[in-house]
Amino acid sequence: MKEPFTSVWTRESRPAKSPGLSRDQIVRAAMEILDAEGVDALSMRRLGAKLGSGATSLYWHIAHKDELMELVMDEVYGEVPLPDPAVTSWEDMVSIFAYGLRTTLSEHPWVISLIGSRPSLGPRAMNLSSRMQQVFERAGFTGPLLDYTLSTVLAFVLGWTGPEIAWRAARERSGLTGEELDAAMKETVHRAARDYPELVKRYDEHQAQDPEVIQALAFDFGLTCLLDGLRVRLAAGKEDNQRFAPPSTAEHDESTKNMM
Amino acid sequence: MKEPFTSVWTRESRPAKSPGLSRDQIVRAAMEILDAEGVDALSMRRLGAKLGSGATSLYWHIAHKDELMELVMDEVYGEVPLPDPAVTSWEDMVSIFAYGLRTTLSEHPWVISLIGSRPSLGPRAMNLSSRMQQVFERAGFTGPLLDYTLSTVLAFVLGWTGPEIAWRAARERSGLTGEELDAAMKETVHRAARDYPELVKRYDEHQAQDPEVIQALAFDFGLTCLLDGLRVRLAAGKEDNQRFAPPSTAEHDESTKNMM
DNA sequence: AAATCCCCTCGCACACTGTTCGACTGTTGT
DNA sequence: ACAACAGTCGAACAGTGTGCGAGGGGATTT
Question: For residue B145, which of A171, B135, B138, B205 sits 20 to 30 Å off, Cα-Cα?
Fold first, then answer.
């Protein structure tokens, strides 16, 4: 209805030559509030106050709050440590990337809640894509698989971090520590899995440890698994490029014609 | 600080014998609003109006809006089609589950934004866990791996669906269709990837198709990849149970002692 | 020197949010 | 008959994002 695909990145930034507020300052301040007090604590008035200016002044530098969110999100992508290409095996680089992304997201838990809202098209996200695709290219992946592999790794890490953050938030909300926390968690899980004795049994056997440790182990398993899979796909190579190739434009036109 | 691990599931539900409002009705109505108009459209007043009652009446049946969200989320998990165990290969069952979860989430896009907020402990989520763990158990996975495998698959699908939904939302927001949409997307991506000619080149070669088709292909690749990986892990078997096993409680105590 | 312009800030106002509180029904139990 | 309770609701509070128009101040033009 409105302008097509509007987002911060399609618009030009304000000159920002001024001595007062600047887009960077705003984004930085927003990040600080978000990191310190979570996504609910960030309001325009609060942000303005932190910057020593009125709330509505921000709207000169930023169109909506949503745009601000896009900006801070990209900032986070900029913090993900990128493996120096051509240093070790591609598997190691993927591992470094995956772990790095996980800890970066953990440091900015609010990002997860924004992932379904807008596609990440900011410069840092693009840089990240480019670098990781290089890694996969050197590893021997070709064609559309370069996209697919990266998307797959990304999906795994994003999807992993979500529930992980949810659990940590719940733990922190409870305000408990040590044995009290363990007991409360056990209580909760037992009650939730009341009707599933196997789940309870497995929980008691394996999960009765520091949850961070458990989750680290599980993440490592998932990542190992994924790397195994990628290795297999790499070996499958040529066939993949046929099997997963998008239909040619001609075919595509044909099929859409038939559909209408 | 407050009561430990409070959530809808730790509390008892209201008797709900009344002829008027009931928890189920509320949840159903909330779902309808969410599906039809998205997460921002759901307000207590709106929901009350839809049910023909005052906004504050809802608070008799539900503690906070957050709790309501937990309830609707679990409802969604209940819609995920579960593969009938012992019918085909475990790979097929995982595929069915993954595809089913993906389409279910696509039908309720607002769920994705809630994933980082609270752990999913509702009855349908538990049922889903139980059933899928059975699948993995029959496949030959053992011990903690039963948790890890499920978590890995879940992470992949969740993390995949997030960006996918973000793109679709952006497309729908644009209000364009057909060639106009294609052109607008191309424009946007070109501008975003301005500094990365390889990305642009790859996009022009592979992505200039119906985005839904591309994403389906990519999802299929990721899933194939994951299944390959799981198969490898299954074969690795015994070692995995050592490698990924949580430290015994004794060891755990030791290590924490040394850390402090 | 005066007038015009534009960048930038900001107070007010609007419609809306989640939630608390106390008052109000109608039903049930004794 | 009275009391206890389940359930509903209106008013009110503090807070939200943001449009609008009024201004200030520095640079540029006349």
Answer: A171
Q: Is the dihedral of CA A134, A140, A144, A148 positive or negative?
A: negative
Q: Residue B130's closest CA among A182, A216, A189?
A: A189
Q: Is B117 on the interface with A (CB under 8 A)?
A: yes
Interatomic separation, CA of residue A113 and C1' of nucleotide D15, rounded (Å): 22
Whether the CB of A122 is below 8 Å from some CB of chain B: the reply is yes
Q: Which helix (H) or strand (E) holds B215?
A: helix B211-236
Rounded Cα distance, B228 and A257, in Å? 36
Q: Left (φ > 0), alpha (ψ -120 to 50) or beta: where does B24 sit?
A: alpha
**Maximum distance among all alpha carbons in chain A?**
65
CA of B189: which chain A residue's CA is closest? A121
Q: Which domains, from first to last, does chain B contain?
A: 20-76 (1.10.10.60), 82-174+209-250 (1.10.357.10)
Residues B225, A9: C-beta atoms closer than 8 Å? no
Interchain contact A118–B (C-beta under 8 A): yes
| Alpha-carbon gap, residue B182 to B180, rounded angstroms | 5
Buried b (16+ CB within 10 A) or exposed e, B170-208: bbebbebeeeebeebbeebbeebbeebeebbebbeebbb
Q: Give B12→chain A minimum CA distance, Å.
A: 11
Nucleotide nearest to A59 (CA to C1'): D18
Residue contact B148–A221, C-beta within 8 A: yes
Q: Which value, to the nearest 10 degrees, does the dihedral of the CA atoms of residues B249, B253, B259, B260 take?
A: 150
